[in-house]
Amino acid sequence: MKITEFFMRRPVLFWSLMTAILIAGVLSFVQMPKLEDPAVSAKQAMVVVMWPGASAHEMELKVAQMMEEELRALPNVKKVKTECQNSSAMFTVEFQMTVLNKELEQHFDLLRRKVNDAASRLPQGCYSPIVVDDMMDVYGIFYALTADGYDYPEMYKYAKYLRRELLDVKGVKRINIIGNRDEVINIIISKEQIARNGIIPTQIMSALQDAGKIVNAGQYANGEERIALYVDEAVGNEDDIRNLMIQTLDGKTMRIGDIARVERTYSEPQRKGFFVDGKPALAICLAMESSAIVPDVGKAVDARLSQSMKNLPAGLQIEKIFFQPDKVSEAISSFMWNLVESVLIVILVLIFTMGFRSGLIIGFGLILTVAVSFPILLVCGTTLQRISLGAFIVAMGMLVDNAVVIMDGILIDKQRGFGPKTYLYRIGRNTAMPLLGATIIAASTFICVYLSPDTAGEYARDLFLVLCVSLLASWVLALVQVPVCAKSWLPKRNRKEEKGSGAVMNSLVHRLVRCAIAFLIGYKRTTIIVAFSVLIVCIFGMTRVKNLFFPDFDYKQFVVECFFPSASDANVVRDRLMEMSDLLGKNPAIDRVAISQGSAPALYCLVRPMTSGGDCYGELIVDCKDYNTVLQQIPTVRAQLREQYPEAYIRIRKYNFSTSTSHTVEVEFAGPDPAVLRQLSAQAEAIMRRSPYVDDYSVQNNWKPAGKSFVAEYVQQDALRSGIGRGDVANALLAATDGMPVGILNDQERMVTFNLQVRNADGSRIKNLLEVPVWSMMNAHLSNEELQGALVGGKIMSELQD
User: What distance in Å separates the CA atoms of residue 714 and residue 734, rounded to the nearest whole number?
Assistant: First the structure.
């Protein structure tokens, strides 16, 4: 108790220290990073391998098996999940939860090396694998930019301007623009022209590649200077393509525009898109630094955005889809109100039980305890977020325990007639170590969370830090602040009529408690039987409590996931989503409906459910006025959409921590035979559907149904006589359907693809695939001399005819 005596003799120093604690607490609270959730890393990365033209089965046999073997050889890999689709395979590498955040970058580096080594073993035609290791970023600020009367290139231009402006805001880490529609330049040739001259497509491709290629012209020596030489590009836009000259077999030159229709348009079908209330929009998603004060960043972003919008033309509007700073501000505000309420409740309760001044002393100690905790936690690297604020709320009921014990001991010793030199120190000397032991026991209850070497420990580590720091601070302040304040705020001695041991602990409440204890001891057997009976009733009551490990968040927003049949056209999926949006928009309880086609727009909060997406996927982000309205509307929306669109699998998801799984109950079957796996899956689904607690509609498996396909049988003998290879057949079919990429136009930072298309004379698609003309890329039926002469125009058509 020497430290208590030290401050007793120096009251000025004590009150100066208390003032410093309050000031330091306020400053630390202001400076501490404020987030919605703790900054945790997603211990997984994705590897994407593209192989144009390969079926899902070929991707599985020739790519997935080899890549999985390589990826499983990495250290600390928990699981490798592979999803094979036509022309692509996605590998999700999940590392063990024991991999610490500081070691994660090293594991990602090993992953990149392993993927680069395996790239040489991929089949010919595969693109270089892409490693996506930034899946940990949370884009907590999510805007939608809509433009009435503007097309996508104009919207994207203004969205880039906003991104450039917002990147200057302190605390903004990365900004993604999502929902833009890619442009292409279609070069459309009729099949009749190819039938008359089969070398035209090859000549067009050669001319485009030569015109857009960057060439090195060297340097020109001009006296003592060397001046760089450049050859300008022949192609800058679609008009240049129309005017580009090619040479025919008979030596004539002609414009591409004379033999083909050139147009700049959007790529078809539309595979990615973002819409708000049925209007095209662009999603602008901002990721913030992990050390950012989110509410301050949100205010700065709003201020910069409102200023930047003044420089944009009329018709462009921006609105918030998800704004994490508001969530954090609400949480901080709720914490402050809880703190005020806790202090008031403590003071009011103690006023009625221990007296007015005693209640003020303990309430003041509670404020000091919280204030002194903030600087210490700031030094420990703690942030203010869901876990740390929740830990403070949990600790509120325990932070006054030590002060109550010390204060009660002081009051009792004072009633017994002891002098100030005795009653101010006696209780502290007798109970300091027992109280320290109880405090350590209470804090160590949560040490298992802090020591957990996994993601759960990373996420919830602040629970232990906050409780440990605040409880130990409450113990120190109870031994120092309570006696000093008692000396200053309480009268030195009680009145004479209150002195004497007879008045101590002999109130009506004390007498009732003593009588109750004596009665229970007198009937020991009955007391024990009743206690065990109550225990059994409580255990039975626990079985009736709903078990929900991850509660739903009270956001006024929910997500409708829509999975259409695997062969659905992307444009049809877009149209269906727009119909759903119009349908829900007529509901007066729904404020806004945002559509994301192809995939989720971004991971805009940690508890956002994410899916792999695809052409057959789309989702609706539905906003209501409050969480109670969300709970009321979810059953209505679910029933309405399932009835109107029976061909789609529709699932409604609220924001919840259980984002690693898509369903409440999941069963996994693994084995080498797909047929056996499908049988086991069907049996499990049948068992689930028989359960009275399961919604039949929700039972599904993650094996997509077998899709439809046409197979062109390549007859080698006939093809050799015509000089046609398998690749030529594939190119002809590609040009007759979506279009064949034959080059790229660099339009500032965008790349516009040259798309060669073969159509009927009237511009319509060729419905009968047997009528698609096939040309040879190398014209192998000509000799080398004849082919060279044809390309340079030295041979006329009549000389090359068979």
Answer: 15
Ranges of beta strands (E only) in 732-790 are 740-747, 750-759
- What is the predicted pLDDT for the residue at 802? 38
Tens of pLDDT, residue by residue over 431-490, are 999 999 999 999 888 888 888 777 777 788 899 999 999 999 999 999 999 999 998 888
What global pTM score does this model have? Answer: 0.82
Phi and psi torsions of 575, nearest 5°: -65, -40
Would you say 211 and 244 are in contact if contact means Cβ atoms under 8 Å apart? yes
- Tell me the per-residue pLDDT of 637-684, one tens digit each, with 9 for 90 and over: 999 999 999 999 999 998 887 766 777 888 888 888 888 988 999 999
Strand order of the sheet with strand 261-266?
261-266, 183-190, 750-759, 740-747
| 395 vs 331: CA distance, rounded Å | 17
Rounded-to-integer distance, Cα 217 and Cα 201, Å: 29
Q: How far is it, in rounded angstroms, from Cα 634 to Cα 556?
A: 11
pLDDT at 339 over 80: no
CA angle 505, 508, 511 (to 5 degrees): 65
What does the pLDDT read at residue 376? 94
Q: Are 613 and 570 in contact (CB under 8 A)?
A: no
Residue 25: CA count within 13 A, CB half-sphere: 16
- Torsional sign, CA 584, 585, 591, 597: positive
Q: Tokens 């008031």 map to which residue?
A: 344
| Closest residue by Cα to residue 179 from 88, 266, 263 | 266
pLDDT in tens, 133-155: 776 678 999 999 998 889 999 99
Work out the number of other CB atoms within 10 angstroms of the CB of residue 303: 11
| The pLDDT of residue 100 | 75
Structure tokens at 512: 């009732």
Start-to-end CA distance of the chain, whole Å, equals 113
